[in-house]
Amino acid sequence: MIPPLLQAVKDLGYENPSPIQEQAIPLVLAGRDLMAGAQTGTGKTAAFALPTLQNLAPHASSSASPARHPIRVLVLTPTRELAVQVEESFRDYAKHMPLRTCIVYGGTDMNAQILALRKGVEILVATPGRLLDHVQNKTLMLNQVSVLILDEADRMLDMGFMPDIKRIIALLPPVRQNLLFSATFPDEIRKLTKTLLKNPAEVQIAARNATADSITHVVHPCAREKKRELLCHIIQSRGLKQVLVFTGTRIGANRLAHQLRANHIQVDAIHGDKTQSEREAALEAFKTGKTTVLVATDVASRGLDIESLPQVINFDIPHSPEDYVHRIGRTGRAGLTGEAISLVAPEDMEALAAIEKLINKKLERVMMPGFANVGTVATMVSGEHAGGGAGRSRSGSQRRPERERRPPQQKSQHPNPHQPATAPHSAPHHAAPKAAQKHHDPIFSKPYEPGTAAPVAAKTAAESSGGLGKRRERPVASLLGGLKRA
Questions:
Q1: What domains does the chain contain, in order, with CATH numbers?
Q2: pLDDT value at position 246?
């Protein structure tokens, strides 16, 4: 490493490189395309930022002219939080070098971003959608990009960014270095690498989709309706001070945060419906300890680098097993220990099985007394049927006969279908007068008269007898202009 980078690393307190850095940095310095996978929290950002900055050192310029600072490195990330983290890392590592960084993402005013771009930047960190907005407005140029970095490429695929990424790649020079870094590499990403990377080197530090050994996993079987109560019990009984809780939806995050506040727990929520300033304020309050719990959707599963985060709780089990790896990767970072707690309802067992298959690990089940009194929950641990479900079936059987006795009684009162049914009149005694007061139509307000139906039935029966053919011909012939009347 060149002296400015070594000084920056020393200032940050780093002494020994991580395994991903040891293997990836020489390959990036050699100009190779690279596909690197490592567990979250093992220093992937430094693995591509440090060698990229060293390769940019010959182009560093202290000139104030924007023309001397074209965009040479483009980093694409799936979320704003990850973009902020990556840009901060580049800025920290390049603080002793005359290189400029800039970040563009949605949810904020474009004017401030345009002003920063006009001054000239060598390293641009962006989310795909906002980058294309700038391209459309012609506020930046990508014709001198020499390095493309896709961070958390699998997440961009999950979020539907792949069409945008392909549009961005079409705007870049064909000769460039391409780097893909992620904690997981699904088969779809491997297909993408065949078209994007040229003779890439591959670095896989741990088993594919593996989790860090410093993280302990525990599953608490729980009835769905008791999850919130169990979450409060875990936080309050253990005196937890910094907990990141994941939910599956934005509405669920807001609702859970409101319910935790009602239990006198300091909590805030972060998700895609929040403005960027609100998300940054919530994250800062959580990092500084002003709030005990941060409820988040999967927007926080990538890019949140919280120092010494002790616990991550999955209130909702993720549908994608890869998201479990990224969620729990927020704890146990940089060699520290962490705990991943999952609240699992009976309907979550299929998703839990997919997670265990992915990480090739059986997660420990711990039953919390008082929170798993539903029979189907007990089977998650013991495999035996409990009495709770039988109790529900008995209560249901007691209510069901009441609803089923009425139709046979009504039918038994009028066994003859030709006799007039009096049940329609006797049932709504209180409704008929109100209807008569509101509606004065002489036909629909008139009481039902059974005797008038008999002649109609007799007439219909007569029409279905022998003279039917003659009667049917007359209207058909008259339509055709024939059969004059006598």
A1: 3-204 (3.40.50.300), 215-388 (3.40.50.300)
A2: 93
pLDDT bucket at 485, cuts 50 / 70 / 90: low
Tell which residue, 232, 345, 354, 335, has the closest CA to residue 293: 232
Q: Cα 149 to chain center, whole Å?
A: 24
CA distances in angstroms from 245 to 101, 183, 259, 274, 317, listed in the order given: 32, 20, 13, 17, 11
Q: DSSP letter at 241?
A: S
Beta strands across the sheet bearing 293-296: 267-270, 293-296, 243-246, 311-314, 338-344, 215-221, 364-365
- What per-residue confidence (pLDDT) applies to 476? 53
| Rounded (5°) CA angle 123-118-106 | 65
Contact 244, 269 (CB under 8 A): no
Tokens of 141: 């140029």
Residue 81 CA to residue 376 CA, distance in Å, equals 39
In 10 A of CB 287, how many CB atoms?
A: 16
Which strands form 147-151's sheet, in the order they lie side by side? 101-104, 123-126, 73-76, 147-151, 177-182, 34-37, 201-204
Average pLDDT over all residues of the chain = 78
Is the per-residue pLDDT at 483 higher than 90? no
Buried-exposed string 206-231: b where 16+ CB fall within 10 A, e elsewhere: beebbbbeebebebbbbbeebbbebb
Q: What pLDDT was estimated at residue 457? A: 44
* Ranges 38-47, 135-144, 193-202, 366-375, most confident: 135-144
Dist. CA 427–CA 453, nearest whole Å: 21
Q: Which residue has tokens 């001070």?
A: 241
Please tell me the distance from the alpha carbon of residue 374 to that of residue 345, in angstroms, as a whole number.
10
Q: How far apart are CA 345 and CA 380, in angstroms?
A: 9
Give Cβ neighbours of residue 333 (< 8 Å, ≥ 6 apart): 40, 41, 305, 307, 309
Q: 312-346: per-residue pLDDT in tens?
A: 999 999 988 888 888 887 787 666 788 999 999 99
Give the residues across from 339 on adjacent strands.
Answer: 216, 311
**438: number of CA atoms within 13 Å, CB side?**
5
pLDDT at 334 (0 to 100): 62
**Structure-token pair, residue 122:** 């060598």
Looking up tokens 């926080």, which residue turns up?
Answer: 300
Q: Which residue has the tokens 């998700």?
A: 271
Distance separating alpha carbons of residues 207 and 282, to the nearest angstrom:
34
**Tell me, what amino acid is at 74?**
L
